[in-house]
Amino acid sequence: MAVKITKRIKDIIERDRRIFLTTTREPYPFVADHGEGDYSFDVEGNKFLDFASYISVYNIGINANASVRKAIKAQVDKLMHAAFTDYYSELPVEFGEELIRMFPKGFGKLFLSNSGTEANEAAIKFAQLFTKRTNILAFYGAFHGRTKGALSLTASKSIQRANFGPFSGVVHVPFAYCYRCPFNLSYPGCGFACVDYIKKYPLSKELSPKEVSAFFIEPIQGEGGYIVPPQDYFKEIKKITEDNGMLLVADEVQSGYMRTGKFLALDNFGVTADIYTMAKSLGAGLPIGATIVSKSLGDIPSGSHANTFGGNLVSVAAALASIKFISRNKRRLESEVKRKGRHMLKRLKEMESKYEIVGDARGIGLMQAIEIVRDKKSKIPGVKEREKILEEAFDNGLLLMPAGESSIRIIPPITISDSNMEKGLDILERAVKSANSGKQ
Ligand SMILES: Cc1ncc(COP(=O)(O)O)c(C=O)c1O
Description:
By secondary structure, the protein is of the alpha/beta class. The two termini are 27 Å apart. Helix 4 (90-101) runs parallel beside helix 10 (313-328). The chain folds into two domains: 7-63 and 330-436, Alpha-Beta Complex (Aspartate Aminotransferase, domain 1), CATH 3.90.1150.10; 66-328, Aspartate Aminotransferase, domain 2, CATH 3.40.640. It is built from 13 helices and 15 strands. The protein has a seven-stranded mixed beta sheet, with helices on both faces. Pyridoxal-5'-phosphate binds at residues 115-117, 120, 143-145, 218, 222-223, 251, 253-254, 279.
């Protein structure tokens, strides 16, 4: 297949550029039209296997599934919006009860919003309220959103923060990015030098640990490059929070909702947080965010946090139908995602060993990535090589998205069929091979 970029596609892109402020568009011209299952189609009917899921939003299939769409349609005819932070209504209650059932014992209470960034804004405020402390720790490489509070936590790319300061109250610390260890050490010989650093420097020279309200983490760093820390890493981070009365806040906006084969990605590391945030796939295509807090933290005072559209009935109808699907199929999805993830990682690791430009392959479940480098020895980020791979894959009918400086994330719907996964991995490998030509 060579995707034809027609006059119509070019015109839509041109009209878009004329009126919309620039965002973060991909290097290839995908103009979405419709989608179903493992596939997305553009306005000219070009068909793409979707390994991006519209940035991890369609975990249960492109355009969700029939049960979600039916629930949305029915709710539209009944009542769309019910001012849920002012009045009561049953649907959000039912959804909240279902959602909490997916959480560890002791959870909890929740707040509904419209996006990942808002879920994190709420988490910042709740952590400050619960601890009566103001400072926050977050990681370099983190992406928690783009509104001002969440952006203070974000430290993924400097362009995302440039000119938007001042930021206050957040101290960033190095993440366990072992492929590019900031301390030039290797795990496990390093003895978690990166964790010692947090204790020895930021938490003794810059901040008193007793003044820190929360430590924000992504179980797998997402926009930062799909970085998976060592298995015991978050136990060390949890210890820092417990020893000092801070709250551990897990941002599961991208990593959660069964993407790693567990409802919460943090469960892969044997650690429970005090507050979780979710969005993206939670609404199966409609906007919804949730901030879920441990019961032990109690409640917040009336009037201290609210919004207009949190608990919007159409979004909640979608989220409820979707979580019912997850809950009904949980066991099957868990084992399927793990099995598919093992196979995908095997294929990506083979690419790592075969091609000079694949520096690292990593991931859990169906949240995986390859990091593209100019060559394995220098590890210089292969930015141009990555672009070439994304473009060639697109041209051959595969949608992929970048992450970090030079990684490619691979996040198909978790319901993808084995044969489509294989087909997509074959297209990816051919694109990698072609970008690699002349290097080996
Ligand atoms: C881990 C994480 N947190 C927060 C956000 C922000 O979510 P939203 O774009 O819905 O505000 C994102 C978005 O990519 C994310 O990946």
